[in-house]
Design goal:
The complex is a heterodimer of chains A (about 80) and B (about 675). Chain A is mostly helical. Chain A has one domain: ACP-like (Non-ribosomal Peptide Synthetase Peptidyl Carrier Protein, Chain A), CATH 1.10.1200.10. Chain A is about 55% helix and about 0% strand. Chain A is built from 4 helices and no strands. In chain A, α1 packs across α2 (about 35-50) and α1 packs across α4 (about 65-80). The longest helix of chain A has 15 residues, at about 35-50. Chain A is globular and about 30 Å long. The two termini of chain A are about 15 Å apart. Chain B is α/β, with parallel strands linked by helices and about 675 residues long. Among the domains of chain B are: about 125-175, no CATH class; about 580-665. Chain B is built from 13 helices and 45 strands. Chain B has a 30-stranded mixed beta sheet that branches. The longest helix of chain B is centred in the last third of the chain and has 30 residues, at about 460-490. The chains are: A mainly alpha (about 80), B alpha/beta (about 675). The interface between A and B is medium-sized, with 15 and 17 residues.
Chain lengths: ~80, ~675
């Protein structure tokens, strides 16, 4: 499973929505209904799923699923996980 | 008053004048007057028993900007001593058994009387926390938050409680008297009933419905106001407080600088410095300093608070239809409750936490400060520890409390430690990290939630919360270490170990306690409790002096705690740090602190985002919405708080650069 699929699965599980509703351009807040607490949970889920450390302040600025995928890829590269 | 005047009998001529002006006396020989007494200013007065009258030559200044003549007009006076230039006007029933100091003004009062052996609210037992009793606090004029806290909370030390009760009773007995007092320049008006009430200097009591068995402490620099249809029974109201707007109080202590009004009702409760209580209701609460409740439908019951903010409709239950209203809550300092939040006691919440929703399960998160506590649909508490560490609200609170201290005058009874980050909160973070780490290490990844003392937490957040706490711990420790080192370097010390020396008389405990607003190492508390039990501290003055000494030593004690905790957290002795390591520490501090402040800014920015603009620009376009928002709420970059935080980021950078330079040149 590639990173995008894993991100979508994690988002679907966390926000309790259908995975097929999640597109790269989906905005976490506007389109997927994530509240601020859920955003914190999503970061924690991504950290665990990809075994990376994320800076909450920077990560919370990520708005869409596609941006999250890129953010995670970059973090994995920087932390030697990719 | 009486000491200033020498009194003599009335002359026949004076009695004649008084009679002609409608006055009478049960026995004129018992009416004594001061030298210079002016009989023309006593009209339609009836005297009973022994009455002393001062000179009535001056005037009383009114708030309206004009002056009224002193004297006694349309009044029945029984067994009173009335000082010079007092004005008594239109007393419906009588004034009996009062010593009224010079310059006081009493107008349009019904009955004002003192009964034999009155205690003026002193000695009243207030059933705090447990409505059914068992934690009674005895009221007395000089009651402090710290004294009340020990008497209320430390019932597990019977010897201590016995001694505290003795001290409280002795204090109460000091005011026992057959005559009440009205202090100099006090103003009492339009009040039908005042029974067994002492009124302090410059107090203003106006249009009050009824005051029975109480004291209004007041002074020239700290005027106390009781106003507008207040009903109070068995009470003490301290200096610079205001009780207004038809508030209903029974068995109450109102501390210095408190504001109570807008029909607030309270029973069996203590409010210490700078509390604000409007519209709602309090029952058996211990409101430590800065407890605030402003809204209707808010009931605070059977709980310990301090620095607390109650949202509208906040409610709690202490009654489970079993053995009566016997359950208690403990909300530690800085807690906030969201609108219509509900808690079922017993529960305990750690400092600076936020409570949302309807909690119907019992939990204890006291070792998890800055925690988000949200009720799940089934009433269970879902917690996210440390979520509120880097928020705009937390930072603003830390700055606003000291600036809102309304206590005036030299005497401040309650000792208040304002710091948000202290060994008390940081120590709790250390403990919380240990619990969270243990859970993280011992919970399978298939588990969705873990349980912590009755509250639930998403397993996946165990690591996140540790991160929140560890960042704050690191920031606090580095800030203290660098500040200490800078101060020592500025003072001429040139060797690293010496900069970190602690004071010989500092006290250390891994745990600190919050004694109703005063923070201290637990050992200090144990020492003072032991000193009271042994009789070494046997009076209020000695007790207060000891607490003052502890407060004076707080920075010494804090430094010793920081030294020990630094070793535990960084696994390194401060004294063994090298010059390069100190420079690294400064850089690390700058990064952590700046990151923290940027998180605060990000949190503040949410108040300016598109979601926050919802509803703005009524009847207009999207551009109108944004313009309306900016006109009403201003621009993010121009916001005062935002500017201060930005300045703070720059100041941290400057400070760290200066520090590094200093280290490079001196060491």
């Amino acid at each position: 499973m590639d990173i995008e699929q894993r991100v979508k699965k994690a988002v679907a599980r966390q926000l309790k929505i259908d995975e097929h509703e999640i597109k790269p351009e989906s905005d976490f807040v506007k389109d997927l209904g994530a509240e601020s607490i859920q955003s914190i949970e999503l970061i924690a889920v991504f950290e665990e799923e990809f075994d990376i450390e994320m800076d909450e302040q920077v990560a919370l600025a990520v708005k869409t699923v596609g941006d999250a995928v890129n953010f995670i890829k970059k973090a994995m590269q920087e932390q030697g996980k990719l | 008053m009486s000491q200033q005047n020498s009194y003599r009998n009335l002359t026949k001529e004076q009695i004649k004048i008084l009679r002609e002006q409608g006055c009478s006396a049960q026995d004129w020989s018992l009416v004594k007057v001061a030298d210079g007494f002016n009989p023309t200013r006593v009209r339609n007065a009836q005297f009973f028993g022994c009455v002393h009258l001062g000179r009535f030559t001056g005037n009383i200044k009114t708030d309206g900007g004009f002056e009224k003549p002193s004297g006694i007009y349309n009044a029945t006076i029984a067994d009173c001593k009335i000082g010079n230039d007092v004005r008594i006007y239109n007393i419906g029933v009588h004034i009996a058994n009062y010593d009224i100091s010079p310059g006081a003004c009493i107008e349009n009062v019904g009955t004002m009387a003192t009964q034999r052996r009155a205690l003026f609210g002193n000695g009243v037992k207030v059933s705090v926390l447990n409505e059914a009793g068992g934690r009674e606090v005895i009221l007395f004029d000089e009651l402090s938050a710290q004294f009340a806290y020990l008497m209320c909370m430390h019932r597990y030390r019977a010897g201590l409680i016995k001694k505290l009760v003795e001290i409280a009773r002795n204090e109460a007995e000091k005011v026992r008297a057959d005559r009440g007092k009205v202090g100099p320049a006090a103003q009492i008006s339009s009040t039908p009933q005042i029974i067994d009430v002492n009124v302090g200097a410059h107090a203003v009591i106006n249009a009050v419905a009824s005051l029975v068995n109480g004291t209004v402490l007041s002074s020239a620099e700290a005027k106390t106001i009781v106003d507008s249809n207040v009903v109070a029974k068995d009470f003490i109201i301290a200096e610079a407080a205001s009780v207004t707007g038809a508030a209903h109080l029974k068995k109450i202590f109102v501390g210095q600088g408190c504001q109570i009004g807008k029909q607030f009702s309270a029973e069996n409760s203590l409010f210490f410095s700078n509390c604000e209580a409007f519209n709602g209701e309090a029952c058996s609460i211990f409101a430590g300093p800065y407890t605030v409740t402003h809204h209707k439908s808010t009931l605070l019951i059977a709980c310990l608070f301090s620095f607390y903010n109650a949202g509208s409709g906040t409610n709690q239950s202490n009654h489970m239809y079993k053995l009566g209203p016997v359950h208690e809550g403990k909300l530690e300092r800085g807690t906030k409750a969201g609108s219509f939040s509900y808690m079922m006691w017993p529960c305990r919440v750690g400092p600076f936490s936020i409570i949302l929703g309807k909690h119907t399960r019992i939990f204890d998160t006291s070792d998890f400060p800055f925690t988000h506590l949200e009720a799940a649909p089934n009433g269970k508490c879902l917690m996210i520890p440390g979520l509120y560490l880097a928020t705009a609200g937390t930072l603003r609170d830390g700055a606003k409390w000291p600036s809102r201290d309304r206590r005036k005058g030299a005497k401040k009874r309650d000792i208040i430690s304002f710091d948000i980050f202290s060994p008390y909160t940081v120590g709790k973070m250390m403990k919380a990290c240990s619990v969270l780490k243990n859970l993280q290490d011992n919970t399978e990844k298939s588990v969705e939630e873990v349980s912590i003392n009755g509250a639930q937490m998403k397993r996946v957040l165990l690591r996140t919360s540790q991160k929140f706490y560890r960042t704050a711990i690191e920031m606090y420790l580095l800030e203290k270490v660098l500040a200490r080192s800078k101060k020592a370097l500025d003072g001429g010390i040139k060797k690293i170990p010496e900069t970190f020396a602690s004071d010989a008389d500092a006290a250390y405990s891994p745990d600190w306690v919050d004694i109703a607003g005063q923070l201290m190492p637990k050992q200090r508390l144990l020492n003072i409790a032991a000193a009271i039990e042994s009789g070494k501290i046997d009076n209020l003055s000695a007790f207060s002096n000891e607490l003052d000494k502890i407060h004076q030593a707080i920075h010494k004690d804090e430094w010793l705690w920081v030294k020990n905790t630094y070793r535990e957290f960084f696994n390194r002795d401060l004294e063994s740090l090298t010059k390069d390591e100190l420079i690294q520490a400064a850089e690390s501090y700058q990064k952590t602190r700046t990151n923290f402040l940027k998180q605060v800014l990000a949190d503040a920015e949410k108040d300016f985002d598109k979601l926050s603009r919802t509803g703005f620009g009524q009847d207009g376009s999207t551009e109108d919405r944004d313009e309306d928002f900016h006109q009403v709420r201003g621009q993010y970059n121009a916001n005062k708080f935002v500017k201060e935080v930005c300045d703070n980021i720059e100041a941290v950078e400057r400070w760290v650069n200066e520090y590094k330079e200093k280290i490079a040149t001196i060491l």
